[in-house]
Design brief:
Oligomer: single chain
Structural class: alpha/beta
Distance between the termini: 44 Å
Number of helices: 14
Shape: globular
CATH class of the largest domain: Alpha Beta
CATH topology of the largest domain: Rossmann fold
Strand content: 5-15%
Number of strands: 7
Radius of gyration: 21 Å
CATH architecture of the largest domain: 3-Layer(aba) Sandwich
Helix content: 40-55%
């Protein structure tokens, strides 16, 4: 199957990165290289693009798409949580821009055998972004305790009926372990009142999101490594993050704000004594949203938000 992925907010992201032809850029979620192909096309031979992805299907597709620029492109099969190590292993200390396009690609959603989509009834319950990993979504559904299942459904899926779904999963798996997306869909349908199903979209949407996030450690990786990405930026470098749900966006917004205003002194102190210095400024106090044209072309962009942080150490942190 061809690797297809609509590059969300492509012109807005490219503009936000302020690409320099001799700059060094990292795409931490390379995917099919939609964003990266444009970045690479704007670089001279002195520039460098490093693309990172944990999905080997994405690596294969991106390698083909970026072939015309191979002289200044390096592709790494890894999780972006290791970005700093991967970049420094290449002898690079600072970069001019970093991009994260979070969430699931259209290819992953539309390839039934990957098990990401609740619209597929007979797909294996997989959901691994890195297919070299051993743990699958089926392992989570079949082995997590009722309490653990309820927690991830509530925390990562914001599922109102988390307790009921978790209880029914544990009851059902005693006799019939979960193997397919259809197995999970059936239990979720039975767990959510019909009235809520008529008004809340597909009943399995939040459950599938929660299990996928838990399996791929999406929120913990994001939260644990944004600070070091800002540290990896050179002066005037930019970190651009595209999120697709409130949990991701909240992490990014909080991290950017903390790095812009890190002072921990009480408000009534006349001068700062904590010693924490601003690392730059948030360019997007209100996130950039998809255009109407994009929403017409790709409904999956609807929940996307782009936030941008600019590294500034030598000057004031006031936005420009």
């Amino acid at each position: 199957m061809e690797f297809k992925h609509y590059s969300v907010m492509l012109p807005e992201t490219i503009e936000a990165l302020q690409i320099k032809e001799n700059g060094i850029y990292v795409d931490g979620t390379l995917g099919g290289a939609g964003h990266s192909s444009v970045i690479a096309s704007r670089l001279s031979d002195e520039g460098r693009l490093i693309g990172i992805d944990q999905d080997r299907d994405a690596i294969a597709a991106a390698s083909e798409r970026l072939a015309p620029y191979e002289s200044h492109v390096t592709i790494v099969h890894d999780n972006y949580e290791h970005m700093v190590e991967d970049v420094k292993r290449l002898g690079i200390e600072k970069v001019d821009g970093i991009l994260l396009d979070l969430g699931v690609s259209s290819f992953q959603l539309d390839t039934g055998e990957r098990g990401f989509s609740y619209m597929q009834e007979d797909a294996p319950l997989d959901m691994r972004m890195d297919r070299d990993a051993s743990l699958t979504a089926a392992d989570i559904v079949n082995t997590y305790s009722e309490r653990e299942l309820a927690r991830i459904l509530r925390d990562y899926g914001e599922e109102r009926y988390a307790n009921r779904i978790a209880k029914n999963i544990v009851f059902e798996r005693e006799n019939h372990p979960f193997q397919t997306t259809g197995d999970l869909n059936e239990v979720v349908r039975r767990s959510i009142p019909m009235k809520s199903q008529k008004t809340g979209g597909h009943p399995s949407k939040r459950t599938f999101q929660a299990i996928r996030i838990e399996l791929n450690r999406e929120l913990s990786v994001l939260e644990d490594h944004l600070d070091e990405m800002i540290d990896l930026l050179a002066e005037d470098g930019r970190l651009c993050v595209i999120t697709f749900h409130s949990l991701e966006d909240r992490i990014v917004k909080s991290c950017f704000k903390r790095n812009e205003h890190p002072c921990t002194c009480p408000p009534n102190f006349p001068v700062c004594v904590c010693g924490n210095r601003s690392k730059g400024h948030v360019l997007t106090h209100k996130p950039i949203l998809p255009s109407e044209k994009e929403l017409e072309e790709n409904s999956r962009s609807r929940s996307a938000k782009l936030r941008v942080f600019v590294k500034k150490l030598s000057t004031s942190s006031e936005p420009v």
